[in-house]
């Protein structure tokens, strides 16, 4: 009989210890497998931000019940994101946070390429400015406190992005072919 109780105690202890692991294993990721792969491949900051913005756009489309924009390479993006309203709102907030974290990481390591970093910031800022009215509209319609919390978080990320983008230097105007040719001629004449 003592053996039976010992086995029963071990089984219950094992279940209690392993139960949290099962719950964690079922936790939902905020990116689909195909999207995760696209993020891994997009190492250049402007490309990474472009992918993250598209992921957020896809979730807003699903939330609003609007069709997704056709993809140039649909096989790369995989199936549209799925989930409950709360899950999609959580995804949006987490993706905005990821974008902010990626921008901060580049800035912290002084890898702010004069060409790619400003482009990434402008793209993210423009997207954040478009998201703010959408977030506010959803916030105003929802009575759910958890949804409101996620929406406030997303709105704060958008505000941070827009504020930070104001500190990024503007892109230098592109030179025309004619201007480049004139500079070449001038430098050639100066050397003669």
Number of domains: 1
Mean pLDDT: 82
Using only C-alpha atoms, the radius of gyration works out to 24 Å
Could you say which structural class the secondary elements and strand pairing correspond to? mainly alpha
Q: Please report the total strand number as a whole number.
A: 0
The run of helices and strands is: HHHHHHHH
Sheet having the most strands:
none
Q: Output the number of helix runs.
A: 8
Low-confidence stretches: 7-11, 17-25
Ends distance: 106 Å
Question: What's the shape?
Answer: globular
Helical content (DSSP H or I, runs of 4+): over 70%
User: Which strand-content bin applies to the residues?
Assistant: under 5%
How would you portray this structure in words?
There is one protein chain. With 192 residues, this protein is mainly alpha-helical. It has one domain. Helices cover 74% and strands 0% of the residues. The chain has eight helices and no strands. Helix 3 packs antiparallel against helix 5. The longest helix has 26 residues. The chain starts with a helix and ends with a helix. About 7% of the residues have low confidence.
């Amino acid at each position: 009989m003592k053996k039976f109780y010992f086995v029963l105690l071990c089984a219950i202890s094992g279940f209690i210890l392993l139960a949290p692991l099962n719950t964690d294993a079922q936790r939902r990721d905020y990116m689909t497998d195909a999207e995760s792969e696209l993020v891994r491949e997009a190492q250049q900051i402007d490309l990474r931000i472009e992918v993250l913005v598209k992921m957020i756009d896809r979730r807003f489309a699903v939330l609003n019940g609007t069709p997704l924009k056709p993809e140039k390479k649909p096989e790369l993006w995989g199936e549209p994101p799925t989930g409950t309203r709360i899950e999609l709102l959580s995804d949006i907030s987490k993706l905005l946070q990821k974008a902010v974290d990626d921008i901060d990481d580049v800035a912290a390591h002084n890898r702010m390429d004069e060409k790619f970093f400003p482009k990434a910031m402008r793209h993210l800022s423009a997207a954040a400015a478009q998201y703010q009215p959408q977030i506010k509209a959803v916030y105003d319609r929802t009575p759910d406190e958890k949804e409101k919390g996620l929406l406030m978080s997303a709105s704060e990320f958008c505000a941070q992005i827009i504020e930070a983008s104001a500190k990024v230097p503007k892109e230098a105007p592109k030179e025309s072919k004619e201007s480049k040719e004139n500079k070449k001629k001038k430098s050639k004449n100066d050397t003669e």
